[in-house]
Amino acid sequence: MTVMASTLTNAIGVFLVMVAALSTVAVKDKHGQSVIVRATNRFNFMRARNSGANVYRSGPLGRTKWGTNQLPGLAAQSRLSEHLDSYQRPFALLSVPSSGDFTVIIGTEPDGAALVDQEQVDGWVADWGHWLANLGDEAGIVAAAVTIETAPDTGTRLRGEVTTNIDPEAPAYARAMLNEVVATYPSGSASVRAYVSVTFSAAARANGRRRDADEMARELAARLPGLTQGLSATGAGAARPLSAQELCEVIRIAYDPEVATLIDDAHAAGESTGLRWPDVGPSGHQSNWDSYQHDSAVSVTWQMTEAPRGIVQANILTRFLAPHRDIARKRVTWLYRPIDAGRAAAIVQADVRAASFNESANDRPSARAVMGTRAALATAAEEASGAGLVNFGMLATATVMDVERLADARAAMDNMSSTARLRLRVVTGGQDSAFAAALPLGLVLPKHLKLPAELRGNI
User: Fold this and answer.
1) What are the extents of the domains in the chain?
2) Is the dihedral of CA 433, 438, 444, 445 positive or negative?
3) How buried is 200 (Cβ within 10 angstroms: 0-12 exposed, 13-18 middle, 19+ buried)?
4) What does the pLDDT average to over 271-275?
5) Taking burial as the number of CB atoms within 10 A of a residue's CB, which of 183, 308, 310, 420 is the most buried?
6) What pTM did the predictor assign?
7) InterPro entries under this entry (predicted)?
8) In whole angstroms, what is the distance from residue 332 CA to residue 326 CA?
9) What contacts 457, CB < 8 A, 6 or more positions away?
């Protein structure tokens, strides 16, 4: 009898241990993260902090051997070159040797939806859908990203425009009024910039040799005009590739926002900033558990864990993308990874089977299960009619100039994400990597993971 009781106790103990082990994988929070993922993330961050890997010091007096302000983390291996496309426009070509990717960055001037008919907006949305669908048919494209950046307007461009065009013979009252406009207009105003980065793979062709930067530049020089022309029909306005100097300035300002005024002043004076790619990184940064300190600013980056459910209108992101008084600089980046047509059909059919099983598993299925089946069937029908399929995600970065304003920025992002029906989660343990991924650099995050994305999705 004693032996049986001991055996039963051992069996119960083993069962409880198995249940506890399975719960670390099966039990997930509202963002879809299991206990084991959160614990592993915390352990890795603590190990990095104890070793000092979360602190970066560069420049002549820094800890790096090369003495430059090289980009840290995921972008450290990036290389920049400049070439001419078939329209003789200079374009920056960014390469990442570790992943074998090449990225071109396109600058756009969005038209905005003010005083625009709904019919025109519907046309822009349809053309944007076509542009995304065509990415899956473009040879070699592995990812694309759209970055919307809002920041305070320095007023330098307005002052330069007025100064160069004002008539010295104009009445004193008119000149005084213009001077007052130049002095007061920039207060509270913001600039909005949009960038589209398209990443291509340098995968080997039939001869088995991976293409280098010159070969990719020759190929992309002929393809860029088509990409920019297609973007112009989506409401993106005048689309053109960024030059190497422009890309250097964009990244430099992102890491050190205080230099934005200096760069605008240089442009107003007709001078070049002379920035080089090895000098665009921060002179120092510190990646904390849920924030990121870099040069003159502090940032927090969120990731989207759930997209808006139900019907999504064209203006759902209007408030989320708009400037906010509690956020000095805001950067929202949508990440896309096109799926080729061969895999797309199998994926949508698997989604239909999974949704149908969830609905039929209960005698009284929930409304969400029913809507999930309808959405899966609608997606399958659209894919069968020729629509493209893409994996997508979103990163949002809020930057403040004073760490004491960080709490206000967090509250503002929470409020704006609620109006957009987005579920956001602060990136923990990898704020420096998330910050770099939200920049227009074309970084493909799955290629930089130590654990395969398929395995991470299962745990």
Assistant:
1) 54-153+188-458
2) positive
3) buried
4) 88
5) 420
6) 0.86
7) SCO6880-like
8) 16
9) none
